[in-house]
Design goal:
Order of helices and strands: HEHEEEEEEEE
Low-confidence stretches: 1-7, 9-16, 18-25, 27-31, 33-48
Radius of gyration: 28 Å
Mean pLDDT: 82
Helix content: 10-25%
Length: about 180
């Protein structure tokens, strides 16, 4: 049986020896590096004006057109901070809101709304919490954020609760 297996492989071995080989393989130059990202000031993040905001729910788009403020529970729910949602000529939605407490705590949310869906929206931008709930606390991130309506509430709540230092931050956008 071994002779049969070896005999059956002989034609393949002969063919393998017939493959032409280039004694000097082509050496390709290294791929160019991507350009370095532009330096940004984290206090004023660049808001990309790219593709139009994806609007999958007209109901939620209407809610965002008629917002009534923003809150962070550490600052308070009684007095909402101002919030503005704008839409440019290219269909890009922007959101900018803040809340300042009497004790100096501050919330800032600013960025580009990427998608508006049924009961949610996605924001690419900055969320910043300063001196709340305690003086000296500083939480700032510029990334993709998810807000959603839960339990038939009249606001969208930030779904990343413990994004900074394991304290649970409730950031709410009212409509």
């Amino acid at each position: 049986m071994r002779q049969f297996v070896l005999a059956g492989c002989m034609p393949l071995l002969a063919l393998a020896g017939c493959v032409p080989r280039d004694p000097t393989p082509e050496i390709l130059p290294p791929a160019p590096l991507p350009p370095a990202p532009a330096a940004t000031n984290p206090a004023t993040p660049a808001i990309s004006h790219g593709a139009p905001t994806r609007v999958l729910s007209e109901t939620d788009a209407e809610r965002l057109r008629h917002t009534s403020g923003i809150t962070l529970q550490w600052i308070g729910w009684d007095e909402r901070g101002p919030l503005e949602v704008t839409v440019d000529d290219d269909g890009v939605w922007q959101l900018s809101g803040s809340q300042t407490g009497e004790d100096g705590g501050e919330l800032l949310v600013r960025g580009r709304i990427v998608e508006i869906g049924e009961g949610y929206f996605t924001l690419r931008g900055l969320v910043s919490i300063e001196d709340a709930p305690d003086a000296g606390r500083s939480c700032r991130q510029d990334k993709m954020w998810h807000f959603a309506i839960t339990q038939n509430r009249r606001y969208y709540r930030l779904r990343e609760f413990e994004w900074c230092d394991y304290l649970t931050d409730y950031v709410d956008i009212y409509y």
